[in-house]
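Hi, here's the filled form for the chain we discussed.

Project: internal
Contact: R.S.
Residues: 445
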Amino acid sequence: MQNWKFAISSIMSHKLRSFLTMVGIIIGVASVVVIMALGDGMKAGVTKTFTKDQEYVQISYSPNKSGYVTGINIGPSEDTGEGGGESGPAAEDRGMAAPSDIDGENAEDVDGQVQEAPPVVQESWVKELTKIQGIDGYYVSNTSNATIAFQKKKADGVNIQGVNETYFSVKKVELLSGRKLTPSDYSNFSRVVLLDEGLAQQLFGTENPLNQVVSVGDNNYRVVGIFKDPNAGTALYGASSGGSALMANTQLASEFGTDEIQNIVVHVPDVKQIKTVGIEAAQKLTELSGVRQGEFQIFNLDSILEETNKVVGIMTSVIGAIAGISLLVGGIGVMNIMLVSVTERTREIGLRKALGATRGKILVQFLIESMVLTIIGGLIGLGLAYGVNSLITTLAASSLEGPPIISLNVAIGSIIFSAFVGIIFGILPANKASKLNPIEALRYE
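And the returned structure, exactly as it came back:
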């Protein structure tokens, strides 16, 4: 306890010098904590983006039975070989047709093997999936891009999504004004469209967009509703996206030449059942479609999310390590000042030794002093990091994937590391002080 009093007394007697000594530690700790917080915030933002609609499970068709389901490699069986789909005797033993026996339109791939044509999905098949326990709804959609214009204003690269009649009852769409699509819009192939609020603002400004006529591609459509789309203008639609619009999937297919069903989504309210229920739904759809080579699989972002977070983590660690160089510089500054302090206090050291202080006590005294310097610097640096992160959140919140997050582990780790720097760079001055000969120290002027 006495050593701590000596350390604090020495620091307080040279306030300016002590503060200047801490500057390197303050900057180093603040830099590392800010960078780690930005990295953690980015990972949290990416995770939130990937998982916010997790209860909506997308099912897609794969031309080959690759053995990949929900991002987990379940591996090819011994009979299938590495390429996926079975053929020959192994296929016949399982009641499957070899590629040459498959009816319908087939295409030949680069290896000379006949590939089964992808099935034209029927909505009645997808409707059957709602009989699976755990699925309470579905919707199907198709997509295209087009330019939407009103008078002299236009928006290029608008993401147009065609949706079926069940879409609005399953998907959480916030309608700001107007109406949703009605059954008559589908049966009559009505040229009506809903615009997201950003696109409506771009085309109409302060004017009321409802019942206005806009051109979508080469045709005119009446605006019947305005909705809020949180993904409009984000990376989901591409950096150059002009927004998003909704229309009937049958209308989109007839006028833009797409399939009526390109995307299949089932709603699983209990996210814990997503994998089990999703795989069952994909298998059921494969059975209903009658495909023999390919299969339907659920689309899961777990592996993509893991890889993205890994890349972000590596970048954060590398940049953090570079910023940590300032801690090294700060540590050298602490060592330099402590050497000066040892020289200034030579007589004091000699007196303490003459009064019975051991070498170990002198060593500990100076180590504690250097450690107190770096701990105080670390605390100030941590406070500075909190201030910088608050400023970043205020000024650049819209351009960040997620606000900076200073975790408890990072905060505690920064203080512990500061103390560690003080110990490492205080060893040399402390060792020098402990080795002083008391008689020579007392004679020192």
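Let me know if anything looks off before we file it.
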